[in-house]
Amino acid sequence: MIKNTALFTFSGALFALIFSGIFAFSSTDDHILMEDRSRFDFDTTIEQIEKKVDDAGWGIVNVHDMKSTLAGHGHDVQNIQILELCSSHYAARILELDDERIISPLMPCRIAVYEKSNGNTYISRMDNEAIARSFSGVIEDVMARATSEIEDIITEVIE
């Protein structure tokens, strides 16, 4: 009996170890954040994104100028703005349904434009397509479509 229990425990621990290793290895390429270098300087990147957002029928509902905000608290950081992008069509599809409202903390979609000490400008955003895969139905559909459109908006700006 003790021999069987030990063998069962060892087998279970070995399975858990192998499964954990496979999971850790397979998820190393899945990043929740994406970053790309802009082809332009900071101000031009912001201008280009604003134009492309408008051209795509989206809106910018808010811009957080973190450099200015932090300067007001005595901190000096390089240029960084967080743009909140919204498609009223996609937002309405989510917010008109009770069960789908759970995703609202991720709304509106955000992208950050910032400078690094190397002098280059970057655009980062969440990989909403990866997040969408953890849902189904309307949420998955809306997030996948919105992500595709946001990527189209920034494609011409990134290298």
UniProtKB/TrEMBL annotation:
Pfam family, any one: DUF302
InterPro entries (alphabetical): DUF302, TT1751-like_sf
Gene3D superfamilies linked to this entry: TT1751-like domain
Residue span, DUF302 domain: 64-127
Protein name: DUF302 domain-containing protein
